[in-house]
Amino acid sequence: MAPVERSDEELMLAFRGGDAPAFSELVARHQRGVFNFVLRSVRNQGRSEELLQEVFLRVVRAKDRYEKTAKFTTWLYSIARNLCVDESRRARFRDHQSLDAKRGGKDGEDGGSMLSRLASDTVPTDEAAEAPKIRKRLSTAVDALPDEQREVFLLRQVSGLSFREIGETLDIPENTVKSRMRYALEKLRSQLADLRADAPLQSEASVEQERPHA
Amino acid sequence: MPDALSPAQLDRIEDALEHLERDGVDALMSAGEPDAAVEDVLAAYHSILQLTREALPPVEVPAGLLDDVLAQAHTAATAAAASTPEVRVPWYRRVKWNVWGPGLAFAATAAVLLVVVRPASDDASSAEARDAKVAQRTPASPPPPEDPAKTEVGDDRLADATRLAEAEADADADEKVGRGEGLLGDLDAERRRDDAEPAAAEDVPVQEAQQVEKKLSLGSVRKEEKAKEEDYGGVRGGLPGAGGGGSLPSTNTKTSGASGGKVSPSEPAKKKGGSSSNAGPTPAPTTSVPKAEPTVPAAPPPEPKPSPAPKDVVDDAGDEAWASVVTGDTRRNAGNCNGAKAAYQEAAKAAGEDRTRARALAGLGLCALAAGDDKGAESYFTKARKADPSVGSFIDGERAKLGVDNAANAAEVDE
Hints:
Distance between the termini of chain A: 48 Å
Oligomer: heterodimer
Order of helices and strands of chain A: HHHHEEHHHHH
Strand content of chain B: under 5%
Largest sheet of chain B: none
Helix content of chain A: 55-70%
């Protein structure tokens, strides 16, 4: 008979009571989701790794304040999101761009990052170059989403949180989460219409149509 | 799109978003009414989500990235475990139920036995106490206050005796004695009589009283007293009226008035209740006799009260025989069945009168019954009923009590 899997909350309480393996299990469960969310949010691998460490360190430090009434996932992603927001604010005031930051191209086109301009030891073929192109466009489209839509989209698509958990993490109503998700999808649809043969092109004005929520 | 989408359609799209990628458009659309516009939008969103998932594959966390964090967590957990006060398990939780449960059940059972069964046999620790208890439970005759008919008879007799005394009639002494037995059986009645008719009592000749006393100061009563002294290890006093008054309290009272009035209360033979109760109904000049006062310390041992004698048993032979019956009753009630048998046999031989003989035979039957000889007992009872059918009620009553005693003894034996 398989042992009953303890919930995140039980593990956290066990860790608070001195059970170190419980924390290891929590890390194993959530490190991937948190890391991808942070990575897609800050778009910097190194910084994302630091932030991931910081997220779990904060969990360790704040273990005594944790109450079982709070869902652990919500608590964990709230910490990660706050760190990402802080990081984004700091990045805006940096007087220099990182090497992998996007740079403007001619006539408003994406010029790529500084790293992408460096010499590569591999020669891309047409077929092999197609997939990265698509990924690049998608990544760019996601990055172009407004922050509030992007974080909802990332928490849902990258971290796999439910709309209710996203709402608790961001402290917004679930309906608002749904609306933001729809806006995000609509914007992506308009930007990636040429990638879908069956999808009609949509005007930017229709994407921006907002619907009031209660 | 969406100029044409109504708020309801937008709601439907938003509600479908959460499970769009998992369930697919067709599954979501089959749940409600078909709507081509909504279906198109959901299909477009589904494609976007799939493209996004392919374009943004999950990135693995570099190995060892969180080792330092885990080390810190281990340190913190160790510190937390060390700082956490040891939870002291109470002793009653450490002791397992399966260990002390049976002990508790045993103790509870013992307590129940002590509480429920023990009180019934508290006083049965010694044979003497048990015998006394048996004697208490099976009195030879019911106490007079419980027999209102008898009390009424006593009162009537009291009135008769008073009239006799006043008239100094020529009634013979036997009649007076016969009436006096019932009178003196009740001390209260005597007092009432003394209070009511002091003058009349004074008129009773001393000579007559002495004559009555002679007749009623029975040797048989003395025999009974002697037997009781033997039975109770010499504890004197408190003998009830052996002659059949039967209702005298255990405290000996100076009933010199009943025994002739001028007889000194200090005379031992007249101090004893048994003799006094037999002393006859002669209305005594109570003015010259002090009121009843106890001459023996209170709290005598419990004693059975013998049945009242038939009122017509007043002749000497009858007295002798009835005294033997009373002696037998006393011994039987005290558990001395052999002595009781001897007394009953003596009474049966001496009794010429049917009622006394019937009582003696009934006593023999009860002794046989107590010894377990049911056939012999029935034989005696049959003879007794032949001699006097009225003895049947006595037999039945005694048998019932004996049955109770046997049940009580059986319970003690079982215990």
